[in-house]
Design goal:
Layout: E1 6-8, H1 16-41, H2 45-68, E2 70-72, H3 73-95, H4 97-101, H5 103-113, H6 116-137, H7 140-176, H8 189-203, H9 217-224, H10 226-233
Antiparallel strand pairs: 1-2
Helix pairs in contact: 1-2, 2-3, 3-5, 3-6, 5-6, 5-7, 6-7, 9-10
Length: 234
């Protein structure tokens, strides 16, 4: 997956990060506002503000994906991640055990909405902030269990996302290459020619197209068999 700060998508949207972000955003937009309102009603204004900041970031990025086909990874990394960690810190300090419950969806969210290395970075910050706080607001037995289970959730998320990414790359490779010669097939021909032409116009460099035509393949197949014909093509 691309590790750029902005993802420009080509429909149909097939990028795992953008698709999972839309799913997570739908859940967040449906479930977090009631908790934000509840925090306001009980005088926990900073928690309420934090909840709606998180909702706002999700809403904007989801709108950008659906309306403009663009996903802002930088907004997630530098906006959503700090907002979530600040929300968790305030929740742990003011609500104790209740704040722990929010740590688990937060850890999963980072892995499903960020490129892998950035997700590691975000979760490392999350763990470095949350784990010391948990040891202060919880009893030692509960704190130990919370630390272990949160680490397990993080590891499980890494494994799950890694497997999905590897399968996605394998499917993309199969869709773009010819199984016999392992060369790129016609699926990408038009896009590749358009990109090359656009680059040639930008850089004012000459573009050259070379076409190769292999003759007499049918005669080789008829005389020596299709296996030999395939060997010649390879």
């Amino acid at each position: 997956m691309s590790d750029k700060t902005t993802h420009r998508l080509n429909p149909p949207q097939s990028d795992f990060i953008t698709q999972s972000f839309l799913g997570v955003a739908c859940v967040c937009l449906a479930m977090m506002p009631p908790f934000g309102i509840n925090n306001f009603l009980h005088g926990r204004y900073w928690l309420g503000i934090g909840a709606f900041i998180i909702v706002g970031i999700f809403a904007f990025n989801a709108w950008s994906i659906l309306r403009h086909n663009r996903y802002y990874t930088s907004l997630t990394l530098f906006g959503l991640v700090p907002a979530v960690i600040l929300f968790l810190t305030l929740s742990l300090l003011t609500q104790g055990l209740v704040g722990i419950f929010w740590c688990y969806p937060a850890a999963i969210t980072f892995y499903f909405t960020l490129p892998e290395r950035k997700a590691w970075f975000a979760n490392a910050i999350l763990l470095s902030v949350v784990l010391p706080l948990a040891s202060h607001v919880l009893t030692p037995p509960l704190a130990m269990r919370m630390i272990v289970t949160l680490l397990m959730i993080s590891i499980f998320s890494i494994i799950f996302v890694r497997v999905i990414n590897e399968q996605q790359q394998r499917l993309k490779l199969q869709a773009m290459t010819d199984p016999l010669t392992k060369l790129l097939n016609r699926t990408l021909l038009n896009d590749t020619l358009k990109e090359a032409y656009a680059q040639s116009k930008r850089s004012a460099l000459t573009m050259t197209l070379i076409a190769l035509d292999i003759d007499h393949i049918k005669n080789i197949n008829d005389t020596y068999g299709h296996e030999q014909g395939d060997s010649v093509l390879r």
